[in-house]
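Objective 1b: paired records.
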Amino acid sequence: MTSALHPSQFEVNEAWIAFQLNDTPISTETDGSFNSICLMDAASCYLLGTELVSTSQLEPSQKQARSMLAAAWAHKEQYPRTLFLPTGRFQGTLKAEAEGVGITVVFAPEHQLLVFIGEALEGYREHMQPARKT
């Protein structure tokens, strides 16, 4: 995508965006480490769903990709026309599952997606950072 993207360019449920919410893995004592993969509506910037994906995987499994799309579909009972994916990410199962239900997949540099996902990323960082001692 060469032109700048902005939420005002879209109607609700016209386009979704998939992205990784966390910078560092989410660690658990019993199940290992995970990344939180989210689907967001491009117009409203509403989070439609998330999946915790093991850090040993590059992207959601087929079952997880289907679950993400189904959870997002449930909000409006329709799929969007477009799913934006960060360039170089989610090129396998998530892309294939989206295309399988008729969604056009468009890859965009992550910096162009920040206008949509930036607030969610910042909120997550603020919430998950340990409190600083003063």
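Objective 1b, second protein:
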Amino acid sequence: MTRESCFCGWVGELEDREPVYAGAGEWGLRCPMCGHLDRPETWSEAARAWTLAEAARRRECTVG
């Protein structure tokens, strides 16, 4: 788990952000407080895939 902070002051685990489609086949992670979108395109494919999958799983658990 990775602790992350946003410009708005939100602090939490990176995986607690909302996965959103950013266009052009890319996904990003949206801050749950202000909506700022981080695009993890510079991460390794494995790190990006795991983090987005975990964020989606957590989101599903809280929404569903």
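The beta strands are 3-5, 11-13, 18-23, 26-30, 37-38. The chain has one domain: 3-63.
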